[in-house]
Specification:
alpha+beta
Length: 290
């Protein structure tokens, strides 16, 4: 007679097969990168399709907004516009004064670089990786290593690009680091991600370093990855233990990494790059002549 309960594959065979497949994937991970990029490009339209219900809900909510709510928002925006206009007038005076000081010092003026607003399409579900996916890719000129900021400060950098989308590694990811400087005294250091969205770590800071709670950290421009002067974080704690060689310094990112929706992609200043190339060529020429 045929047995009622047929015996399936043994657990030992399943475990052995799983181990072999895991080792095979580890060995072929680098070779699978082109295929992974192609699959990401093919799936990019599906991400747009998945965002259609959310976009329709947003459109419906805006369409059914009451006239009274719109009137209140309009009044608040007018008041905010007046306040911002007053601040803009003061900033214009400061800009003119800064231009005069730069002229006296012979410093080059940094022109406005290209910027594009991008929308977050996906947030990492892996608790050990902090990244978001944007709705701009190679077709928009996005490139690996491109800096990304929001209204408050630096958010991270692009680490993967497909045809229509790009992946941004956030400041808080343990694999991310950014050169920064303290605005109060121009002390330079490196801010590293800790795996916590609202915490960065400043490593290898000597105990004699002049750094205080509340100091503002901005991008230093070293490494030619992030433009100089963009806000990054604010120092939250400084612990100097006599038994340790270095101080323990933590900072909080200024960007709201847990609720970002719209981000700004930055392109390098072409004019600035040309000036740097000209300076390098002239220096090489002088060395050759000597």
């Amino acid at each position: 007679m045929k047995p009622i309960f047929a015996r399936g594959i043994s657990n030992q065979f399943r475990l052995t097969l799983a181990i072999l497949l895991s080792v095979l994937l580890l060995l072929t991970n680098d070779k699978l990168e082109p295929a992974r990029k192609s699959v990401s490009s093919l799936l990019s339209p599906l991400q747009y399709v998945a965002n259609i219900p959310g976009a329709m809900l947003d459109w419906s909510a805006e369409s059914f907004a009451t006239r009274d709510m719109l009137a209140k928002q309009n009044k608040a925006l007018l008041n905010q516009q007046l306040l911002m206009s007053e601040r803009l007038q003061r900033f214009e005076h400061l800009r003119q004064e800064n231009d005069r000081l730069r002229a006296l010092l012979g410093s080059p003026v940094h022109m406005d670089a290209k910027k594009v607003v991008a929308e977050v399409m996906e947030v990492a579900s892996d608790p050990y990786r902090h990244y978001v996916v944007l709705n701009h890719g190679e077709r928009s000129g996005v490139f690996v290593g491109q800096p990304v900021v929001d209204a408050q400060g630096v958010v991270g950098q692009v680490v993967e690009v497909s045809a229509l989308t790009s992946r941004v590694l956030l400041l808080s990811d343990p694999a991310h680091a950014i050169p920064v400087r303290v605005t109060r005294n121009d002390v330079r250091m490196i801010a590293n991600g800790t795996g916590v969205l609202d915490e960065l770590e400043l490593r290898h800071v000597a105990k004699s370093t002049d750094i205080r709670v509340g100091d503002l950290l901005v991008s230093s421009g070293l490494g030619n990855r992030f433009p100089e002067g963009y806000p990054v974080a604010r120092v939250m704690s400084v612990v100097k233990d006599d038994g340790q060689n270095y101080a323990t310094v933590s900072a909080q990112p200024l960007a709201a990494l847990d609720r970002i929706r719209y981000l700004l992609l930055l392109w390098p200043d072409v004019q600035e790059e040309v000036e740097e190339m000209d300076d390098s060529v002239s220096a090489d020429t002088q060395e050759a002549s000597q």
